[in-house]
Amino acid sequence: MAMTITEKILAAHAGREFVEPGELVNVKVDIALGNDITAPVAIREFSKLDVKTVWDKSRVVLVPDHFVPNKDIQSAEQAKILRDFAREHSLTNYFEVGKMGIEHCLLPEQGLVVPGDLVIGADSHTCTYGALGAFSTGVGSTDLAAAMALGETWLKVPESIKFIYSGELPQWVGGKDLILFTIGKIGVDGALYKAMEFCGPAIEKLNMDGRFTMANMAVEAGAKNGIIAPDNTTWEYVQGRAKRGYSFQESDPKAKYAEVYEFDVSSLSPQVALPHLPENVKPVEEVSGITVDQAVIGSCTNGRISDLREAASVLKGRTVNPNVRLLVIPGTQDIYLQAMKEGLIETFIAAGAAVSTPTCGPCLGGHMGILAAGERAIATTNRNFVGRMGHPESEVYLANPAVAAASAILGRIAHPREVE
Amino acid sequence: MELKGKTWKFGADVDTDAIIPARYLNTSEPSELAKHCMEDADPGFPAKVQPGDIIVAGKNFGCGSSREHAPIAIKAAGVSCVIAKSFARIFYRNSFNIGLPIFESPAAAEGIQEGDEVSVDMETGKITNQTRGEEYQATPIPPFMQEIISAGGLINYVSKRVKENV
Questions:
Q1: I need a surface site. Which of A229, A286, A313, A384 has the fewest CB within 10 A?
Q2: pLDDT in tens, A385-399
Q3: Chain A residues with CB inside 8 Å of B86's CB?
Q4: Quick one: pLDDT at residue B145?
């Protein structure tokens, strides 16, 4: 029987030949992930179980990234819970400040997630790893606790929606624009409970970083997972990183889809999502007069090296508008180092940006760039809900790194070509 | 078991940042989270919600983050259950895992007005609006979810499994 890539990975992890949408399956997980907000709750629940330790010391991954470096005493206590647990159970994949990164930038970079994997993480953006051709999805802390003990979890096999992107992407248009455009078309619950499968010529030409951005925001359409079939681009990325064996899966030609969308993206503009939902998407040209107080370039959505290169190419030799604070947050220490070697960090600082150690910080209104009442930010992050980056009366506009950089220069939302 | 209370109504796409803003996530203490429950959707909510009250909302309730703190905050605020047109996926899972009953019913989500007195039959999913004399049927809770609930939540369920494996 024909299956989608999502169904094949679920079947493989359920020890089955075949699964179909709607079935409940008990699956083995390859990685179970938690962070400094969700893992303390998971560890509390785990301690109620009658088990001595985790199912696998190398596959329970803990990354303090949300409120670290510790923003206050309570956050320090939460981060300490992870550190203590990691030591007590000799976890090999706990990432301390100075070695850590934003979890969804870090795990693929370190080769901890590989194609064909099944990953659950107590963080909604765990769906990012679908870019590698893995099944990965966000869960809550209790689900994480159970998986930490058993190395398995239950899942309902989702229906899949296929998104085919044809045409060549124009300059300054990338993965962020494709996913924002898509969410704009189908809405924030347009893929509720479903798998979003991204394919087509435009995806085949997209680099890994752009693919991570797309899969990352699948949850913003309500999806269970986003996924892209592995190809040569995936192979080049995984080669030399993978810590385990991997398998390339792809959908059968006769696989069944709940829906199929086809978009010609050859004349797509950079997209901007207006407050307060990621579905309020408009081409940048339609919102280019809106002034901004802050620009944020980073996050699990757009904190990778290609994102920083794109932003630096716009900022090189230019300066940040005096009315704007530009924050640049490399996703991991390796990305930070690479950006230094390439001179990108110098470009940012010369332009007047503040560059930070990796953290989720401002994306969720945690720290390192909180907005006051009435303030407005353009950000390469993933959510623009009420109060997401600070005061409930502040606003967040979502865009790609080049748009955020151009907006930081002009003090208003701008198409990158306006500063060329 | 019957849940009964006064309803508070919210719109569509209520996100987890509205349910419990991230600025309060430096703790996971339920009573602390309850103090800020639904704060960014209705700043007065934590002060006025009474034990047993019911939240009624539109589509995609609980979208956004995976934070279990969201259903924990609602439960700790004394809310007996949430009725919505639909629920975001992770919120749905989390609610069962921590023991917050939730019911999917577009008819109830539309028919119920704020302040209505409503009761819900946990087993059948029948929702009765005493104020308006109306009845609605919620999607029954799937059998495997009932198993988790009958075990007393996912942790107890897993404890049982772990013992069986030994």
A1: A286
A2: 999 999 999 999 999
A3: 189, 192
A4: 72
Q: A124 and B17 in contact by Cβ < 8 A?
A: no
Count of alpha carbons within 13 Å of A295, Cβ hemisphere only? 34
B158 and A124 within 8 Å at the Cβ level: the answer is no
Closest CA to B101 of B112, B87, B111: B87
Amino acid (1-letter code) at residue A329: I
CA distance A387 to A390: 5
A387 to B17: CB separation less than 8 angstroms, yes or no: yes
Residue in chain A closest to B15 (alpha carbons) equals A385
pLDDT along chain A (420 residues), means of 10: 97 97 94 98 94 96 98 97 98 97 98 98 98 98 95 95 98 98 98 98 98 98 98 97 97 98 98 98 97 98 98 98 98 98 98 98 97 98 97 98 98 96
CB contact under 8 A, B69 and A41: yes
CB-side exposure of A207: number of CA atoms within 13 Å? 10
| pTM summary value | 0.96
Give the CA-trace dihedral at A47, A53, A54, A55, to 10 degrees.
-130
Cα angle A132, A215, A81 (rounded to 5 degrees) comes to 85
Q: Which H/E stretch holds residue A170?
A: none
Report the chain B residue with the minimal C-alpha distance to residue A279: B13
Indicate which of A142, A186, A393 best probes the interface with B, i.e. most B CBs within 10 Å of its own CB: A142
Q: Tell me the ipTM for this assembly.
A: 0.94
Tell me the three-class secondary structure of A78-140, residue by residue. HHHHHHHHHHHCCCCCECCCCCCECHHHHHHHCCCCCCCCEEEECCHHHHHHHHHCCEEEECC
Q: Do B90 and A51 touch (CB under 8 A)?
A: no
Backbone angles phi, psi at A164, to 5 degrees: -110, 120
Among the listed residues A115, A120, A91, the one whose alpha carbon sits nearest the alpha carbon of residue A28: A120
> Which positions in chain A touch B26 (Cβ < 8 Å)?
67, 71-72, 74-75, 78
Count of alpha carbons within 13 Å of A296, Cβ hemisphere only? 34
User: What Rg do the C-alpha atoms of chain B give, in angstroms?
Assistant: 16
Instruction: Answer whether A372 touches B (CB < 8 Å).
Output: no
Q: Tens digit of pLDDT for each residue in B1-58?
A: 789 999 999 999 999 999 999 999 999 999 999 999 999 999 999 999 999 999 999 9
pLDDT, position B156: 81
